[in-house]
């Protein structure tokens, strides 16, 4: 009886390892949701109005003034929704650690969403850089000297998005590791 228990433990060690990977996958998806959703909310609520001498003239900066920031908000929102839906499959992997087809599906969609999130974050990062530094050749002035709050929030929202990209990279590696263990 003692020998069969040792044999059972060695057979169960692989699924328990995959359960651990699946649980880590679940936690990382929650972290990615918080990062991407927080980024979308931070950028989507970013606005600043400058005071002026004239009562009827207002200088206002909003995220929707720049199509790149709008793309950033939409990309982060779509990726957040995808991550929320993918939590169901992540829970399935915790319960059924031997699932292979759903892991392949997650690797595919995680890769697509990582590319989508990277494109949105990179495009927004380019605009934030121009807002901070300007471009003398193109005759674009740096606006962050006037719109401090707007630029700070826009810069801060990039952090959560790039954390989401990093988490996606780790999720893809984890899923590939779990597939190789099956």
At a glance:
The chain has 182 residues and is mainly alpha-helical.
Q: Which structural class best describes the helix and strand composition?
A: mainly alpha
Strand segment count: 2
Individual helix count: 4
Beta-strand percentage range: under 5%
Q: In order across it, which strands form the biggest sheet? A: 1-2
The poorly predicted ranges are 1-14
- What does the main sheet amount to? 2 strands, antiparallel
Radius of gyration: 22 Å
Order of helices and strands: HEEHHH
Mean pLDDT: 84
Coarse shape: elongated
Quote the distance from N terminus to C terminus.
27 Å
Q: How much helical structure, as a percent, in the residues?
A: over 70%
User: Quaternary status of these chains?
Assistant: single chain
Describe the model:
The chain is mainly α. 76% of the residues lie in helices and 4% in strands. The chain contains 4 helices and 2 strands. The chain has a two-stranded antiparallel ribbon with strand order 1-2. The longest helix is centred in the N-terminal third of the chain and has 43 residues, at 2-44. Mean pLDDT is 84; it is low at 1-14.
Quick tags:
mainly alpha, two-stranded antiparallel ribbon, 76% helix, 4 helices, disordered N terminus, single chain, 182 residues
List the SSEs and their pairings.
Blueprint: H1 2-44, E1 47-50, E2 59-62, H2 67-95, H3 101-133, H4 148-181
Antiparallel strand pairs: 1-2
């Amino acid at each position: 009886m003692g020998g069969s228990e040792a044999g059972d433990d060695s057979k169960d060690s692989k699924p328990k390892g995959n359960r651990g990977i699946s649980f880590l996958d679940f936690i990382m998806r929650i972290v990615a949701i918080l990062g991407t959703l927080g980024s979308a909310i931070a950028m989507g609520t970013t606005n600043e109005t400058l005071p002026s001498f004239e009562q009827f003239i207002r200088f206002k900066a909003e995220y929707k003034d720049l199509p790149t920031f709008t793309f950033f908000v939409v990309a982060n929102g779509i990726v957040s929704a995808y991550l929320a839906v993918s939590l169901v499959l992540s829970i399935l992997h915790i319960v059924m650690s031997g699932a292979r087809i759903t892991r392949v599906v997650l690797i595919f969609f995680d890769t697509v969403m990582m590319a989508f999130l990277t494109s949105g974050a990179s495009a927004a990062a380019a605009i934030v850089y121009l807002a901070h530094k300007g471009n003398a050749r193109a005759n674009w002035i740096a606006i962050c000297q006037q719109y401090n709050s707007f630029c700070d929030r826009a810069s801060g929202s990039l952090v959560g998005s790039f954390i989401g990209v990093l988490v996606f990279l780790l999720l893809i590696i984890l899923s590939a590791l779990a597939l190789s263990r099956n």
